Amino acid sequence: MSAPLVLDAAAVTAACSPADAVAALRAALAGGLDPAADLPRQGVSLGAGELLLMPSDGGGDLRHVGIKLATVAPGNAALGLPRIQGSYVLFDAATLGVVAVLDGIALTTLRTPAVSVAAVLDRLREAAGPVGTAGPTSTDGADGSAPANDPLRVAVIGAGPQAHGHVATLADALTGRPLDVAQLVRDPARTAATEGARIAGARLVRLGGPEADDALRAADVVVCATSAREPLFDAALVADHAVVIAVGSHEPDARELPAGLLARATVVVEDPGAALREAGDVVLAIADGALTAGDLVPMRDVVTGAVRPDPKRPLVFKSTGMSWEDLVVAEAVLDGA
């Protein structure tokens, strides 16, 4: 038996583009993969933090099974070390032999924005129409959306890998559509001075200020990728045509989005069961009376066309991260490698 393939961060990134990861996720859902059947992840408390175990068999429809082993060490920031570290082990589904070991953080950095874009891609395409032609409305239209040859207005809150990753994935998946990006952060000077924190080509804007409010009002897409535990902005700032993506929290008592936004939006989640366990944006909005469990729309239904969200309402995608996503993208990486 040959030794397993070992793919470091650079190899993972080189083997699968963001657009390819988006396509793999959508193909898996269209092919019948059911996120509700995913294996539950487990957390083990440790002295320095937490060990996360994320296994998946893809519902039995994929060629491989796999598990991500990740650690979360809050104290590492003070030591200049990554807060989250880990590896992904991919096994042959028939023999259960180890096929590959992937850098787990690079895989997560690739798959998280790919899941977000996979969930909202149809909305973004339908709102704009074919590239180079006017969409169903112009910038003077009632819903504020723009023709496809106009820039996609993106407001990104955050300065970490997922803020960067979502911009890169939007650009790769929406080939031919330029992006106009505003990066909203609490301390623009610090972000500008921190290596790798500023998104290339983005305007740095102080979160909570009037320029940030203007960016949110104008945004076609709002991405929240922070460690915030309270809402980041006022719900009234988000336009009816906007897509809002929230990926920063997977704890039931923390949220980035105001309940008022979820009350007037179509709320899409990877799986309602997982969202009700882990998604504070959803759990707390339900507790506030702004949302019910029955309002949640599974991502699978949107991707397959079983549900078509109302284009006159904001579309919110709340992600907590699920094990099947790592497995699907790990297979795509392996194919590319």
Largest sheet: 8 strands, parallel
Structural class assignment: alpha/beta
Q: For the record, give the distance between the C-alpha atoms at the N and C termini, rounded to a whole number.
A: 19 Å
Radius of gyration: 19 Å
Q: CATH superfamily membership of the largest domain, which one? A: NAD(P)-binding Rossmann-like Domain
Order of strands side by side in the largest beta sheet?
9-8-7-10-11-14-12-13
In percent, how much strand structure appears in the residues?
Answer: 15-25%
Account of the protein in words:
This protein is an alpha/beta fold and 337 residues long. The protein folds into two domains: 115 residues, ornithine cyclodeaminase, domain 1, CATH 3.30.1780; 211 residues, Rossmann fold. The chain is 34% helix and 22% strand. The protein contains eleven helices and 14 strands. The strands form two sheets. It has an eight-stranded parallel β-sheet, sandwiched between helices. Strands 1-6-5-4-3-2 form a six-stranded mixed β-sheet. Helix 1 packs across helix 11. The longest helix has 25 residues. The chain starts with a strand and ends with a helix. About 5% of the residues have low confidence.
In short, what is this structure?
Helices cover 34% and strands 22% of the residues. Helix 2 packs across helix 3, helix 2 packs across helix 4 and helix 3 crosses helix 4. The radius of gyration is 19 Å and the shape is globular.
